[in-house]
Specification:
Length: 97
């Protein structure tokens, strides 16, 4: 049984030596920790086996969760456009003042 800590699960893998060597080489070349390289490689592999609809649904869910955290999930399109216009005006003022 795996222990979940901070949204991560610790697992033990038995990898073929060739794959392990490739991970070590890539981690060294990218100057990253082996764990980070292994996680990224697994995630990329899973993404290539996921259909586009599932990917878009996952991205959409994450975006809705982010909007909820920001208190903007139920913001109307007019409110969004107004906020964007205000941000645009601030940027223009900063760049051209």
């Amino acid at each position: 049984m795996s222990l979940v800590v901070d949204g991560s699960v610790e697992v033990t893998l038995k990898l073929p030596k060739e794959i392990y060597d490739r991970l070590i080489e890539f981690a060294h070349r990218e100057q990253q920790e082996l764990e980070k390289i292994a996680i990224a490689s697994i995630a990329r592999g899973l993404e290539t086996n996921t259909n586009p609809r599932e990917i878009l649904e996952r991205v959409s869910l994450k975006y809705r969760q982010r909007l909820e955290r920001l208190g903007k999930l139920h913001q109307s399109s007019d409110e969004v456009l107004e906020e964007l216009q205000q941000q645009r005006e601030k940027i223009v003022e900063q760049l051209y003042s």
